[in-house]
Specification:
The structure is a homodimer. The first copy, chain A, is of the alpha/beta class. Chain A is built from eight helices and 14 strands.
Chain lengths: 269, 269
């Protein structure tokens, strides 16, 4: 298995991790729209002998709300199967006794209910979208000039919504890093501890698991650096230039999740 | 002179270049406020045998409007003495046949009146302040994903207004550079061609000229890289950590412009 490429590696897999936005659905107005064939593909994986987890850098909604949206779209997913950066950040903050100034989307705030936010001594940014106003960014900047500890929930450059590409949290992370001469700590993909927490939950070794995502650097490259295989789908934020990327080469590239799952299950029969 | 440090170097100076915001005045509501002693200091320089120019990365207003504000504050300054990035950018755009998508403050738009802005094939960003909304940044980003040519009017990290530190254009330049995997062309300080255009106008060699600014990297470091001396004032965005900066060391540090001018003129008597 260790040397088998895609799709041969599928024969010895024990688990699959799926990115969500751009793989299962495209976000946008309302709940967004399911990507053709994805609902059925998740069903097929669940009916197989493979373990399945979902790993997202989604930080616009608390997991409960987010999973409810996916269920409305028709996906069979439960909260315990979903790994996202906010709960991981809460654990880090509590562990280190840090009190965050939050620059996150309103929908994410409930994830931080249990965290002391008085007299902040660090900043946490998520995909705040419209909340990334000049004024809000200045407020975060001023906290950082006094307390230079920045956590970024992901480092994505952009994602695709139904009405076009949108800037992601990583862009604002870079902005604040430059403004304050500091280096952010990334919580979420492609941070190795984040992927490792999913592997731990599955009880599997990296070489037994395949990551499927639309983000070449954060999904595919991140998983590969942890020892997993990584396959990119040509949906979501995929761009044809990804297939000529200077540093990351996917183990395989498929049209969409439906094709990926069909290929995997075919290899195993 | 070439080896003389501050303040001895003042004896052989032939010209002085002054940064404006943070040296002459602090910006903020309305016209901002003149920094104590600066109006008199400019008068003293003008009465001396030194040539005097003003060099600013100000991009919130057209030069005419900006100079009118300084005159209202009490400064004896005329438009022809002031060098700012927007006119330099217009020259570059025309020279290269580029049509900009502008993400600049409304007050700067008149500087670009003569430029064709239809069907943009590049992006120009200035200190857009509140106009750096998520929506406007997404629009600039989408142009850049098709036409990856970005001009940034300065690369400052932040500046000081009367109500606190504010993020400057450089922070958004870094954001778009990261989002689009490109390198911006900086027009304004600390870009050497920009300083050189001021020296050309004075008809002086770099070693004959001293730059005085509050921005250690962009004013002092930029001038030094062109062969000028650079002195930092402890007003504006100055922070005590500037005096322990890892890569830029000012030739001198003074409390304010008034003190700098007194020291210069004293050396020359």
């Amino acid at each position: 298995m260790a040397d088998a490429g895609w799709p041969g590696c599928a024969r010895s897999l024990k688990g699959v991790i799926l990115d969500m936005c751009g793989v299962l659905y495209d976000s946008g107005e309302g709940d967004g729209v399911a990507i053709s064939g994805s609902i059925e593909a998740v069903k097929k994986l669940k009916a197989s002998d493979l373990q399945l987890r979902f790993c997202t850098n989604e930080t616009q909604a608390a997991r409960e709300t987010f999973v409810a949206k996916l269920r409305r779209l028709g996906f069979d997913i439960s909260v315990s199967e979903v790994f996202s950066p906010a709960p991981a950040a809460v654990a880090v903050l509590k562990d280190r006794g840090l009190r965050p100034h939050l620059l996150v989307y309103d929908g994410l705030l409930p994830e931080f209910d249990s965290v002391d936010k008085t007299n902040p001594n660090c900043v946490v940014i998520g995909d705040a979208a419209e909340k990334f106003s000049y004024q809000n960014l200045n407020e975060a900047f001023r906290v950082l000039m006094e307390k230079p500890v920045l956590f970024s929930l992901g480092q994505g450059k952009y994602y695709k919504e139904t009405d076009g590409l949108k800037l992601d949290v990583g862009v604002y992370m870079k902005a604040l890093e430059y403004a304050c001469d500091l280096k952010a700590e990334v919580i979420g993909k492609p941070s190795p501890p984040f992927f490792q927490s999913v592997l731990n939950d599955m009880g599997l070794q990296p070489h037994e698991v395949l990551m499927i995502g639309d983000d070449l650097v954060n999904d595919v490259g991140g998983a590969q650096r942890c020892g997993m295989k990584g396959v990119q789908v040509r949906t979501g934020k995929y761009r044809s230039s990804d297939e000529r990327h200077p540093t990351v080469t996917a183990d395989g590239t498929v049209d969409d999740l439906a094709q990926a799952v069909d290929v995997i299950l075919e290899q195993r029969h």
